[in-house]
Amino acid sequence: MNYKGGRKGFSQLLAEWEKRSADNADLITSELSIHGSDGIKLQALSELYQLPTKEIAGHLLHYALEALEAEMPYVPGTTVIRVEDGDEVYEDVGPLPRYLNTQKQLRK
After folding, report:
1. What is the C-alpha separation between 43 and 37, in angstroms, rounded?
2. Most buried by CB count within 10 Å: which residue of 26, 38, 61, 91?
3. E-strand stretches of the chain
């Protein structure tokens, strides 16, 4: 490999390390119970991408929680909280506000 190619290779490597470091900056260690078949899937992904199984599991859980939050249903209550374009918007009495409030309390 020539010198210029080596520098490019190192800059790519450093960029990958920076991204991975940023992605993992707030990871915590946690013990989870999972189904055996899911453990095999995690191990297969680990071998495929040459990454630690725990790291893959953490990333998958992160994205699964984001998807779950996005799908929590809006349940309109009886109180109007604002008017948008002439339409009344009612308070959400579904699970999302309670879930977000619990998160807020746990962060304190």
Report:
1. 10
2. 91
3. 76-84, 87-92
